[in-house]
Amino acid sequence: MKVSFIITTKNEEKYIKNTLLSIRQQNCSVEKEIVVVDAMSTDKTVEIAKKYADIVLIRKSNIPQGKNIGAYNSSGKILIFVNADVILEKDWLKKTLKELEKNEVIAVCGLIKPMERSLKARIFMILWNFLIRTLFMINFPHTSGETTLAVKREYFFKIGGFNSSLASFEDVDLGLRLSKVGKVKLIKNVFTIASLRRFEREGYLKWSLIWLATGLYYLFTKKSPLKHYPIVR
Known about the structure:
This protein is an alpha/beta fold. The protein has a single domain (about 1-200), classed as Spore Coat Polysaccharide Biosynthesis Protein SpsA, Chain A. The protein is about 40% helix and about 25% strand. The chain is built from 9 helices and 8 strands. It has helices at about 15-25, 45-50, 65-70, 90-100, 120-135, 155-160, 170-180, 195-200, 205-220; strands spanning about 1-10, 30-40, 55-60, 80, 85-90, 105-115, 150, 185-195. An 8-stranded mixed β-sheet has the order 3-2-1-4-7-6-8-5, with helices on both faces. α1 runs parallel beside α2. It starts with a strand and ends in a 12-residue tail after the last helix.
């Protein structure tokens, strides 16, 4: 069986190497394919990605468009959508595939550990993981990009992939639509190490409120209030 890791990038030269290495070094013997879709980076992102990825595509695209492009150009039976600034723990793939072997499960994601070691980062991540657990308990799968989503290929295309009109919450939107055709499971012992650079630089309270407002807007309208997701470098 082949699994395809799909990553969208935009000026991620500081993070992309470690993300790709964490995929290559997974403690799992299945065939792995890495597809990077770059949105016209002006730094060394593409140069670095070509050293470690199997396919590197350069397309003018937003995040959901890039993810769909990557999916269409992949060949794995399992599609795994990874943010460009995260690190997967070495047993992430092995544990994930074990859960996907269950017939009723069509997609899975895990919890998050902070890349930054500040006290604020650690407290925030405890609260964030608590929120994710709670939402899954009430049948609202919070499949944010930081949790890293793995989905069976047939079901991804069955629901039409990501909604390319959403500048934010496209990942949560995908999880909610997937949950209508099968089981989306949270694996509580699988972790993605995610960067909280946006929160560290611009403030935890500020971005918590922005995410809350954006989430509520999406819930009531199924649209994003943002035309473009703000880039942080």
